[in-house]
Amino acid sequence: MTNEQIIQNAIDYITKLFETNSGGHDAAHTLRVYRNACLLAEAEGAKDTLVIALAALLHDVDDYKLFATENLANARAFLRENEISEEMTEQICTVIEGVSFHTHKKPDSLAGMIVQDADRLDAIGAVGIGRTFAFGGEHGRSMESSIQHFYDKLLLLKDLLNTDAARAIAQRRHAFMETFLAEWYEEIGEM
Ligand code: ADP
Ligand code: NI
Predict the structure, then answer these.
(1) What is the distance between the alpha carbons of residues 147 and 132, in angstroms, rounded to a whole number?
(2) Measured on CA atoms in the order 23, 25, 31, 36, is the torsion positive or negative?
(3) In angstroms, what is the span from residue 2 Cα to ligand 1's centroid?
(4) Could you list the residue range(s) of the whole structural domain that residue 78 is in?
(5) Which atom, in ligand 1's list, is nearest to the CA of 128?
(6) From the CB of 125, is ligand 1 less than 6 Å away?
């Protein structure tokens, strides 16, 4: 199988898996993270592009909020099915485990840093704003509680990025969130 075929299989796999999910955690999120990861890999001159591509595409397939799997069982099943070597499987799984905001740890490989940055870029900017309110609505939260999430997480992300390429993309997205918040307070009459 060529790398292109494996990547296409991964796209098909996540499209099916996320069919029933909506809002912030759908196939479109995964595809944006994959696209961001490809851009960052190119800009940073990363070598292990297949590891980066597959880790990006599989980064949410074992998210505990959506799937009750253990030890990245969905990701591992896909990788086994597509005859990815054990060594590469472990590299990909390490990258996936490093993606979570909660781990708060800088990944020790460039591939890990790139996929973590790619996921974080999708949490900020216009798309990040949309995802936050979609998530809030899905969980029965008020708009005010979604606004609080900007201070708890979204506005902190730009300083947690690993790569220069991601920091460059984040600048504009961060500024847009600040503009959004300024408009929000303007409209509700609090400055
Ligand atoms: P991912 O792991 O794909 O980065 P998360 O599972 O952390 O995403 O969250 C999905 C989306 O929902 C993100 O855009 C995130 O900012 C948003 N979100 C997470 N927690 C909250 C919250 N408490 N209130 C509003 N939005 C949230
Ligand atoms: Ni994600």
Answers:
(1) 8
(2) positive
(3) 34
(4) 3-188
(5) 14
(6) no
The residue with tokens 């990040």 is 128
Amino acid making up residue 19: E
pTM of the model: 0.94
189 CA distance to ligand 2 middle (Å): 34
Tokens of 47: 């070598």
- Ligand 1 close to Cβ of residue 62 (< 6 A): no
Q: Is the CB of 60 under 6 A from ligand 1?
A: yes
CATH code, domain carrying 183: 1.10.3210.50
- Would you write out the chain's pLDDT as a tens digit for each of its 191 residues? 999 999 999 999 999 999 887 666 789 999 999 999 999 999 999 999 999 999 999 999 999 888 899 999 999 999 999 999 999 999 999 999 999 766 678 999 999 999 999 999 999 999 999 999 999 999 999 999 999 999 999 999 999 999 999 999 999 999 999 999 999 999 998 65
Number of independent structural domains in the chain: 1
